[in-house]
Design a protein that fits this description.
TIM Barrel; 8-stranded parallel β-barrel; 11 helices; 8 strands; about 15% strand
Length: about 280
């Protein structure tokens, strides 16, 4: 990535429509000065004629963009791994190897006890380690890995050096919404942060539908984005800021304004929070 580590921005795959054209996605990310993009492995088989790995490499190189993450592994926590899941996981490793991707996202739900979940997450991390990748476990209130304490319990019990927690502000704010709980993440376990903003109250009754349709750039909604960023900086987080601003009002439009708005909002938040921390004598 081209920015200094603490300023790296990644345009999440789901900030745009799942099937948004890859060339347009990468171009928009570069125009907004992102360092990387996320890539949903499920889009790869449907890219169309001519989209081999050489063409993707050329696209990334022309725009100075990397694939910073591949997502999302769901099904690793089942008692029996289906053939469909294993085929998808193998596709993820193929993409990781080809594009030297350092990070893979995993989500629940899981079957069985927390001990079962920890064992299976450890096995997933072992498979990822064979490809040089870190796995981040994201807590989602609509799964049985519902909050940060669930994710920490699983990752900590798994005890793998390439396993950690992904904290998404939407699921924090719409879930437990407790910054002190967030600050209890062991610093070495926080491997990815996902940023957005949103209205104080849900727009839709269905949680999953709402979170995929109504996110806003950081600073444009009602979430305590400054408090969230300050809390993860207190943990010593220096990794990328992943902008996951899912909003179907903009998916059908050109992505440029949406990507630029997400990046600009995050940079304003970082500037504001770091200035405040500097005045308080904290690490920035």
């Amino acid at each position: 990535m081209k920015s200094r580590e603490a300023d790296q921005l990644v345009l999440s795959h789901f900030s745009l429509a799942r099937d948004h054209p890859l060339e347009d996605r990468v171009r928009a990310a570069a125009a907004a000065d992102f360092d990387g993009v996320g890539f949903f492995a499920g889009q790869y088989p449907s890219l169309g004629v001519g989209w081999d790995t050489a063409k993707i490499h050329d696209l990334l190189d022309r725009h100075g963009i990397v694939i910073a993450e591949v997502e999302a592994l769901s099904g690793w926590g089942n008692s029996t791994l289906s053939g469909r899941y294993l085929a998808f996981e193998q596709l993820v490793w193929t993409l990781v190897d080809e594009f030297h991707v350092p990070y893979v996202q995993a989500i629940g739900s899981v079957e069985g006890s927390m001990a079962d979940a920890a064992r299976r997450f450890g096995e997933l991390c072992d498979r990822a380690a064979m490809h040089g990748a870190t796995v981040g476990l994201e807590f989602l209130p609509f799964t049985n890995i519902a909050d940060v304490s669930d994710a920490v319990e699983i990752v900590d019990a798994a005890g793998r050096p390439n396993g950690g927690v992904c904290a998404d502000i939407w699921h924090h704010a719409r879930g437990v919404d407790d910054l002190e709980l967030l600050r209890q993440i062991p610093p070495e376990l926080l491997v990815r942060v996902q940023m957005s903003d949103g209205p104080a109250t849900p727009t839709l009754h269905d949680y999953k539908d709402d979170c995929l349709r109504h996110r806003l750039p950081p600073g444009d909604g009602d979430f305590d984005v400054d408090g969230f960023v300050n809390a993860v900086l207190d943990l010593g987080y220096t990794g990328p800021w992943d902008l996951e601003v899912c909003n179907d009002d903009v998916w059908g439009q050109t992505p440029d304004a949406h990507a630029a708005g997400a990046a600009a909002g995050m940079r304003r938040v970082l500037e504001r929070v770091r200035h405040s921390r500097m005045m308080e004598g904290k690490a920035i």
